[in-house]
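sorry for the late reply, my laptop died twice this morning and i had to redo everyting from scratch. anyway the thing you sent over, i finally got around to it. pasting the sequence first so we're on the same page, its 386 residues, then the predicted structure underneath. double check i copied it right bc i was rushing
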Amino acid sequence: MYLTDNKNKRNAILVELCWNSSSKKQAWDRHFNDESLEELTGLAKTAGYDVIKKISIRSNKVNPRSFLGKGKIDEFKNLVEQCQADWVVFNEDLTPSQNRNIENSLKCNVIDRCALIIEIFAKHARTREAKTQVELARLNYMLPRLTGQWSHLSRQRGGIGLREVGEKQLEIDRRLIQKKIFKLKKELESIDKERKIQRKNRSNLFKAALVGYTNAGKSTLMNSLTGSILLVENKLFATLDSTVRTLKTAGRPKILIADTVGLIDKLPHSLVASFKSTLDEIRYANLIIKVVDITHQSFDKHISTTQKVLQELGVCDIPSFWVFNKIDLLREEEILANLKSRHPDSIFVSGKNSSGINLLKEKIKSSMAPISQYLPAQSCVKIRTD
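ok and here's the structure:
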């Protein structure tokens, strides 16, 4: 497996697979693939790769053994040699055998989209919880890919004896990883219990969760709403931990705002499973605030991805509304007018200069149930009837 902590620049070719389609769909497919390749570029640069070439490969079907057909592999091998690429990054999930066979053919490192995102998460994890979650996802990804680590021994002189050595080492490695996975799951269970206690202590408080595509400006919005000083960086997955703060507003009751991990299209299932306790901040919210970067060329895709993830989490019954962020950077007035027409109940804000923040606060407060539900019992006044 080629998930490394190498901090040096790595020359990489990015690959997007395009499915052959009818002429009617070709223009749309080309637009979608361009956007998808740009997103992959952002991910690769965030992980520290030096992108030297981006290519789209058209295909009718996936080769189960090597993902691409022999002819495409041969063409690709020449391209890798010409560009002197050290890495090839696929914008698809590869099976362990596909990953291994492509590497053997191209004679360079190959990673898929899942490995790339895990690498970014590992790079940005800061807290004990985030590091534990990412390590669990990384080991679950590595476990079925161990076979290729020792297969070279059976091809050397001495064949059978060396193969036995490789198989023995493979079994040792597999058991070590399984033990680590078991230990990490236990650690996450302990962290999850701590979170449940925290949620129980806040059970009488109204909770709103900020949810949205990575780099939509949720942390900046959180700072504007709560007066906090959370880390704000213009890069993908800068925030991996859910942070809970109090809404900065006069009067009672207290309202909690949770900043959650950013979403992305085709988020690896291993990461979704590992980040269960973090994503639970969304599941236990009274209100979901869906944040969108209005200036991003793919904001429509971000809207659909956000809605899709919320459906997968089973939280579509929780009250929610859209917040379109970064209006201070928007130059096309027609985009603003169109979105206001399509989403009349949404709020348009700038987390950076706080434009529209007061309207957002009022929207949050108006979304609450009767105020008495969130007041501590001791604050209620008893009326004498005698």
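The chain has three domains: 10-124, 128-187, 204-369.
thats about all i looked at so far, will dig more tmrw
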